[in-house]
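Field: sequence (string)
Field: structure_tokens (string)

Example rows 1 and 2, in order.
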Amino acid sequence: MNYRVLCITDRSDLPETELFIGLKNAGVDISVICNPTGKYYERLVRSGITAYDLNLNTRLSLSGIRYLKQHLQKHPYDILYCFNNKAASNVMIATRGMNFKIATYRGTIGNISFTSPASLTTHLHPRVNRIVCVSNAVRDHIVQMNFLWKKVPSDQVVAIYKGHDISWYRQPPADLSEFKLPQNAFVVTFAGRNRPHKGIDYLIDSARYLPSDAPVYFLLLGRLENDKKLRAKIDSSPFKKNIILAGFRNNAPAIFAASDAFIMPSTKREGLSRAVIEAMSSKTVPIVSDIGGLPELVVDNECGFVVPPINAKAIAKAIMKLLKDPDKKYRMAQAARDRIKNDFNIATTVANTQKMFECMIAE
């Protein structure tokens, strides 16, 4: 089946870049419009994919719309795949009066509804043929939405996991000596943005339920150091000397690999956490809350622990299980990596995306 696909994105991350390359290698005639300042832009160009440079910095970019309209009038694409809201909203305006199959990508739960102008000009636009969701949790959320008589047809919404390759995370474990940890330290890592729904407060509160002599150290990665409320909460913790704000790090997977556990205590909106995938690929046992796509990643008590959200005591209990049973921790770490290798790999993502394209063309 012959068809041409144009993907419109911003600074393409590694899984997205490898998806484009995988589709090309699978025989898909694919081109990409993207921001040339992206980290993997050169990798994309070296692969032989035709890349057009465009930075869509707003949802309504007049110059971007003009560029897209002129480009699409010259090139006979069959499918347009929009990877963010800025791409989708500008494409909807630029393609007015044109005939393309259009897919959009959705990576989070929430902030989408039939009463939102932002949603109606992107994912819920009547000309969208497919909404590609990063997890079944995101798909279920969209399919279950309704407003008066409006619903999104279930066959229009598809879940395709964002695939990875464990070879991307085979770097040696990081040297944690800069944090001056004792030799028997049990290191628990968190990485994420400073957002309330990430549940960092519950991670810090979990220390109150640990034995006072437990050699547990929390390593918090991200731009968190300027949060005064967070610092005050840490200062009030009985484990405050064991809670370290490590700042933003470019080598997060290497730090995960040097840790004993990784915690994602989210309270809502998780689509499919890249940080959890990176930790699991690095053979680090994940402890995640039962929110969104997190339980799709982690099989409870097999390759990690799934705990109730907003439950610091449950987090502490999971930490102690790993601390007290090194053999169990080792088995879970192996299983975590195998979980990503077998069920969340880039090859499957490429195959499922190609299958979706073929279904769209057949319709």
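Row 2 begins here:
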Amino acid sequence: MAPTSKVAPAPKQERAKDTVSAVLKATNAALKKGGEASVRIQDISAITKVSIGSIYHHFGDRDGLIRAAYVENYSAAIKDDIERVRRFMQSMNSANDIQENYEEMAAFITEHFVKFPAREQAFVIGSTAGRPLLREAIIKVQNELTNGLTEVMQVLKDRKILKPGLEPRAAAVFVLGMLHGRIIAEFDRSPVSDKDWNFAMLTAFNGLFATS
């Protein structure tokens, strides 16, 4: 079978959505257990009770299935988290309001890395090397995530919370970069605690605001 150029399936019928969801869930489980070598179409079919033909129909081929799993895994948790940040920031009217909710923000950061550990994020990005279709898919997702957080930062700018002269998109990229930076702590022989990491990140985050 020729390699597929599909990025990810986008079924419209509920039954097809359930099928795709089940296959992606099983594929992600296999990836976490043993990497790409553990992803076998026959095994995924047996686990999900989805026919091999149906898997090929939705994902094109094995590489298409793995690519779709990476994209889904990379985007799902972060998109949900950006919506949570959006709701939180829309209720803030000053930098002091944000600082007074430090505990909620610290809890959010901890939960984010429980759902999607930094090393998994780094692994997905690293897997794009030499795989232009996967790279383009991740770039598309990352652009959507950056756009979403940029909208949040624009709200802060409009309310004069963001420092004068600081562009919302630059602030958004900085915050996302700090999140990805967590991978350094996870690979350190003496990793910092979640509490210390949260304090350091929120201290840097506070530097974006017009007042302290």
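free_text_note (row 2): The CA atoms of residues 147 and 169 lie 8 Å apart.
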